[in-house]
């Protein structure tokens, strides 16, 4: 670290720290926070000319205490309108996005698009933001280490900053704490931070938040992240050789869509992902044997996350390769076929209520007696679920005053994280997020752009264009 002073217009900023291990673009982001001058508008004089975003600090000869000159104009202060009222519908689409209040983009701090796209997708979950707001600086319980605590605080503060700003935000504090907690995200190659895997970033961040956002002092140790994203799987493990059979229950935060030459649609990939072969010791045979593991969903989350398994390790080239095959996914996903028998029974009544509600919207006649009976069935199935503990379709209210609802097994697409390129260690990640008003926004680092549903369904792969790597669905529920 070296400290310099920066002269801009009539102002002099003293003791501005430069981290010479990072690119000059990060330094420009710091100056943006101080001056409001966007990095691309900044002209900073150094030895040899203007400071470039990707320059090497060691060749510039910048010294401790040196005064740097910066030129550039900050964004103008918004003036009161000279014309009369203009309705949102009459604005160009790009201006409408700002008018309806979509949140800010994130500056790329040097191959950090994997992090930015992850953050934009998770930032779209209001219940997660609510849980983070309740987390205080002093709220750390004894089970959470200091680095996890600081990462949770940084996530909360960054989400808060995104909500309050339409200008791009530099996620420097979050990035610094993320690298401290998970050093793999700080890997360097030729002095430049390397591209990382967005799925790894997503998984590690959710794991940290799941540890931090547990309710201290609760007998059930309520896990807010598990309530939002946790999928309970029940699995049958069978050995064909010895006929041994066992079952197990596990909780995961995402389903895998495995891709092969047989897979053309998400539904087929999920079916493959819920089956796997295990090699383990067989007590009956006294040696290692192959077991088939078949899983079913036994409890559904509010937000269903699915990863397309597009990357695999290629031994010949000793690197991660990418499967480019096109795999279509729907805007509306029904997971009923992947559920356990117990859960299917409990979903029947809520699904009928949903069908009735949608039928009424379309002007169809609904058998009121049947509808009342189904609602009673929902209450009965919920009571049975609470007594036997298996496959509950109910959604526990997370906010005070929130109504209790029931899962239907039907989900609506709300976020897509894409990767463009042919290698996991290169290329570019982007987040595509559905707003509360139903419009889609493409969050390409610091440049959010409005999109339509047709753009989202084109992200299914098959070439060098952006293709879905992680998708997130929100549960469609009915009130009880």
Overview of this protein structure:
Helices cover 30% and strands 29% of the residues. It has 480 residues and is an alpha+beta fold. Strand 3 (43-46) and strand 4 form a beta hairpin. Helix 5 packs across helix 7. The longest helix has 21 residues, at 341-361. Mean pLDDT is 85; it is low at 377-391.
Question: What's the gist of this structure?
Answer:
The chain has 480 residues and is of the alpha+beta class. The protein contains 12 helices and 22 strands.
Features of the shown structure:
480 residues; alpha+beta; nine-stranded mixed sheet; five-stranded mixed sheet; 12 helices
Radius of gyration based on Cα positions:
26 Å
User: Largest beta sheet, briefly?
Assistant: 9 strands, mixed
Strand content: 25-35%
> What percentage of residues falls in helices of 4 or more residues?
25-40%
Mean pLDDT: 85
End-to-end Cα distance, whole Å, is 59 Å
Going by helix content, strand content and strand pairing, the class is alpha+beta
Number of helices: 12
Gross geometry: globular
pLDDT below 50 for ≥5 consecutive residues: which ranges? 377-391
Number of strands: 22
Secondary-structure map:
Layout: E1 2-8, E2 11-18, H1 24-35, E3 43-46, E4 49-50, E5 67-71, H2 93-99, H3 113-123, H4 126-133, H5 146-164, H6 172-181, E6 188-189, E7 192-193, H7 198-212, H8 224-229, E8 231-238, E9 245-252, E10 255-258, H9 266-273, E11 275-282, E12 287-299, E13 303-309, E14 311-314, E15 319-322, E16 332-334, H10 341-361, H11 368-388, E17 394-395, E18 405-420, E19 428-434, E20 440-444, E21 447-451, H12 453-457, E22 467-479
Parallel strand pairs: 1-5, 10-13
Antiparallel strand pairs: 1-2, 3-4, 3-5, 6-7, 8-9, 8-12, 11-12, 13-22, 14-15, 16-18, 17-18, 18-19, 18-22, 19-20, 20-21
Helix pairs in contact: 3-7, 5-6, 5-7, 10-11
């Amino acid at each position: 670290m070296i400290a310099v002073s920066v002269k801009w217009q009539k102002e002099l900023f003293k003791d501005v720290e430069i981290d010479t291990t990072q690119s000059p673009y990060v330094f420009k982001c710091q100056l943006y926070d101080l001056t409001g001058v966007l990095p691309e508008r900044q002209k900073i004089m150094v030895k040899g000319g203007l400071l470039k975003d990707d320059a090497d600090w060691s060749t510039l000869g910048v010294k401790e205490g040196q005064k740097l000159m910066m030129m550039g104009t900050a964004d103008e202060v918004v003036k009161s309108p000279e014309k009369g009222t203009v309705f949102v519908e009459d604005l160009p689409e790009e201006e409408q996005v700002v008018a309806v209040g979509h949140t800010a983009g994130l500056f790329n701090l040097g191959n950090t698009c994997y992090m930015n796209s992850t953050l934009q997708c998770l930032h779209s979950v209001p219940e997660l933001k609510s849980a983070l707001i309740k987390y205080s600086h002093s709220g750390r319980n004894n089970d959470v280490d200091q680095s996890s605590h600081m990462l949770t605080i940084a996530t909360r503060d960054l989400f808060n900053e995104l909500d309050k700003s339409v200008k791009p935000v530099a996620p420097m504090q979050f990035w610094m704490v993320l690298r401290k907690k998970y050093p793999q995200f700080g890997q360097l190659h030729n002095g430049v931070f390397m591209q990382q895997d967005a799925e790894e970033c997503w998984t590690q961040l959710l794991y940290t938040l799941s540890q931090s956002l547990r309710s201290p002092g609760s007998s059930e140790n309520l896990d807010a992240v598990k309530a939002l994203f946790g999928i309970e799987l029940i699995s049958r493990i069978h050995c064909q050789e010895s006929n041994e059979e066992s079952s197990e229950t596990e909780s995961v935060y995402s389903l895998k869509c495995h891709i092969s030459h047989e897979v053309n649609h998400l539904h087929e990939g999920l079916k493959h992902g819920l089956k796997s072969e295990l090699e383990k010791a067989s007590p009956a045979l006294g040696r290692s044997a192959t077991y088939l593991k078949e899983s079913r969903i036994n409890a559904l989350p509010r937000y269903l996350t699915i990863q397309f398994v597009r990357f695999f390790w290629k031994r010949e080239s000793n690197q991660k390769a990418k499967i480019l095959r096109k795999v279509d996914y729907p805007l509306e996903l029904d997971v009923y076929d992947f559920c356990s028998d117990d859960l299917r029974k409990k979903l029947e009544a809520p699904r009928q209520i949903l069908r009735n509600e949608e039928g009424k919207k379309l002007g169809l006649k609904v058998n009121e007696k049947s509808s009342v009976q189904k609602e009673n069935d929902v209450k009965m199935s919920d009571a049975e679920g609470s007594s036997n503990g298996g496959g509950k379709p109910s959604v526990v209210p997370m906010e005070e005053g929130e109504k209790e609802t029931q899962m239907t097994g039907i989900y609506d697409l709300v976020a897509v994280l894409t990767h463009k390129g042919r290698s996991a260690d290169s290329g570019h990640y982007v987040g595509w997020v559905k707003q509360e008003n139903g419009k889609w926004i493409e969050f390409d680092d610091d440049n959010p752009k409005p999109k339509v549903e047709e753009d989202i369904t084109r992200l299914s792969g098959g070439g060098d264009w952006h293709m879905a790597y992680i998708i997130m669905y929100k549960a469609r529920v009915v009130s009880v």
